[in-house]
Amino acid sequence: MAAHYIDVILPIPLQKTFTYKVNESEAEFLQKGMRVAVEFGKSKVYTALVVNIHTQAPQLYEAKDIHQILDEKPIVSPQQLKHWQWIASYYLCSLGDVYKAALPSAFLLESETILYKNEGFGDESILTDEEFLIFEALQHQPQLSVHQVVDILGKKKVLPIINQLIQKLVIEVREEIYETYKPKMVKYVRLHVNYENESSLQVLLEELSRAKKQRDAVLTYFQLKSTKKPIKAKDLEKKSNVSSSILKALVDKGVFEFYHLQTDRVAFKSNTNGLKQLNEYQQTALKEIKESFNSNDITLLHGVTSSGKTEVYTQLIQDTLTTGKQVLFLLPEIALTTQIITRLENYFGNNIAVFHSKYSVNERVEVWNNVLQQKSKAQIVLGARSSVFLPFSNLGLIVVDEEHEASYKQYEPSPRYNARDAAVVLAKLHGAKILLGSATPSLESKFNAVNNKYGLVSLTRRHGNIQMPSIELIDIKEKHRKKEMKGHFSDRLISLIKDALEEKEQVILFQNRRGFSPIVECTTCGTSPQCPNCDVSLTYHKYRGELKCHYCHYQRAMPTSCGACGNATLDTKGFGTEQIELELKELFPKHNIGRMDSDTTRGKFGYQKIIEAFEAQEIDVLVGTQMLSKGLDFNNVSLVGILNADAMLNFPDFRAHERAYQLMTQVSGRAGRSKKQGKVAIQTYNPYHQILQQVSTNSYEEMYKEQLQDRWQYHYPPYYRLIKITLKHRDYTKVDSGINWLAKALQNVFHDNVLGPSAPAVSRIRNQYIKNLIIKIPPKQSLVKTKEQLQKVKNTFEAIKDFRPIRFIIDVDAY
Ligand code: ADP
Ligand code: ZN
């Protein structure tokens, strides 16, 4: 009788699958994509995934028995396994890394997992005796380890029981608590019932004849009322040009009443009549996309900001829904894109599942299961990059919104994949169509489109035929010379802000650096406080009176005197969002200034709160970092200011110019989206810089051509591919000798196509010294072969005892 074996993936960075023994009935029952509990290493138990079932004993080791089978049916689809294999081989990482990244952690129980009770659980009657013992234990102690469960039950094989407890919602494996979000309430006004008939109204208006402002408010109320929509208190104040105290007085008199509605409710009501009617340009684009899909599964939609790309996507989604196939809609960052989520939920509410790494484990498990079972409520999945790992089996369409976004690339930990590129492969595996959308496509995607690898469709008009914002460059060198600067604001920018605020319009100001200032320096001895763990100076956060490291989160109180010479002559250099916010408060004391950066958006819903406050026009001027460039859609913003364009342009990276173009164009795109042409003011020391010229004339094509020439000349993507290798260790000499050895070894194979070694701008982070090498792969050189050669060199490197403790990181298509 033949023995039976299974090959499994373990959730650890092993290069290979591992083989275990199973009995005949287990072999018959098991299918690829099911989980089994197995022991690996020194009595550690892991959840492994079956990828093969066979009768071939392993040659090099004795196969152990499995502990237990954990699933009745596969939880991973065959397409998924193929996709994972592609990721592992393309990004040079282990299948175990991909497996671990792909599955919600509740699916990956291991002996180190910690269990908590689910406070919401009440019905003990559904528990088996063993399950009840665990439930009971959790009434007496806040958490249990898997080892403790083993002790309580007096047996080793406990993962199936724990699995059951998770399924029955008795316990949680918790990393983060998910707070339920309370939508924001918006204040509305209505007339008190006493005044609803004509005659009492006449009386009222006469009564108010001497209170002119109050009378204006009431008259304007009737104008607004003719639109038959609820009237926001803010709108009424604005339209009738009265302050909130006037409305309050009218409420006190019993003329008006305030009431509150949830913002999302209101949106929902106005939107029950299905998808929006596409404008003529959108219709043409939709038609072209469909034609393109006939001959090319991958198509790039290059549509200027506010051209209504989302509306075009929704039509394609609608079409796919009717075929019964699944849709994946990828967004760069879920937290920042609540507006798009709300829009899509309004259209497709019952068919949408949002997959969010911030959701509780149970919710993620639920989405996973719904996708796996092809439930209609998860027919459309909205998610950030990790949603490419969901168990789709019937994908018809993938949309990658803002495809140029760097946040599609994962840096840490492995797998270091680009979700856009992984999505292209995923679509291919399913025979699905994929649409990449952007107002500022990555050079790579545009290049592929221009060279007919992808289809290309353009949308060049804003919805409503509103003109693209007019962009003005302000030479601050000149302004400084003429003493026309107040702090970091030119007189021109100040007057533009004034104009906008007078019109009751809103303003967005962009400064891509948080804190008050990035450098504190003693004017006596020149010393500036550094992070003890990283090679970087500490950023001053005035609001909290602290110095902080933006790399390792080290912080300490801002000293009153210099640590080196003792003089009280500390000064700041450079500026961040905090400083801009403070300057604004002095320049415009009567207006509300808001700030959006990672300091103000800490809590789970930090983003939504600020976005909603801005939407509700409770904030007049919003200062922020690159967060402001992510597809936000505000209808009352007429001015966008960029305080300092130069830092972006001078960044030492071959993508810096492309990025600066994208960032400035995207931020500019927030202006003038719904009523009239917006204005953009960019402050710079270099108004003749070609990128600024291109941004100000909206010349993407020119930027594209120029950047491509540079990329060709200096051997960068999209012509050459890059693999970045990073070594890290606490001991500088170790990293240094490691990288020098590696450079030589790689030069022997790849010759001139090895760049470096070099130290990054911040060459020590969290006490780890860092050195980089880059391998450039010419257009005709085999990718597979290159990677094999690299893997060989890596193996040799790791065989050298001295080098073994060094962290070796490979980043394919590094960003
Ligand atoms: P993009 O993603 O291209 O920047 P959006 O899809 O956000 O643009 O559209 C910009 C704004 O114009 C949104 O507020 C959207 O609701 C509105 N809009 C776009 N197309 C239409 C349409 N066909 N009918 C009504 N409103 C539209
Ligand atoms: Zn630090």
Automatic annotation (TrEMBL):
Q: What is this protein called?
A: Replication restart protein PriA
What the protein does comes down to: Initiates the restart of stalled replication forks, which reloads the replicative helicase on sites other than the origin of replication. Recognizes and binds to abandoned replication forks and remodels them to uncover a helicase loading site. Promotes assembly of the primosome at these replication forks.
Pfam families reported in the protein's UniProt record: DEAD, Helicase_C, PriA_3primeBD, PriA_C, Zn_ribbon_PriA
The Helicase ATP-binding domain extends over: 290-459
Q: Which EC number(s) does the record attach to this protein?
A: 5.6.2.4
Q: Quote the record's binding site residues for Zn(2+) 1.
A: C522, C525, C562, C565
Helicase C-terminal domain location: 546-723
Under NCBIfam families, the record lists: priA (TIGR00595)
Upper classification of the source organism reads: Bacteria, Pseudomonadati, Bacteroidota, Flavobacteriia, Flavobacteriales
* Alphabetical list of HAMAP family matching this protein: PriA
Which keywords accompany this UniProt record?
ATP-binding, DNA replication, DNA-binding, Helicase, Hydrolase, Isomerase, Metal-binding, Nucleotide-binding, Primosome, Zinc
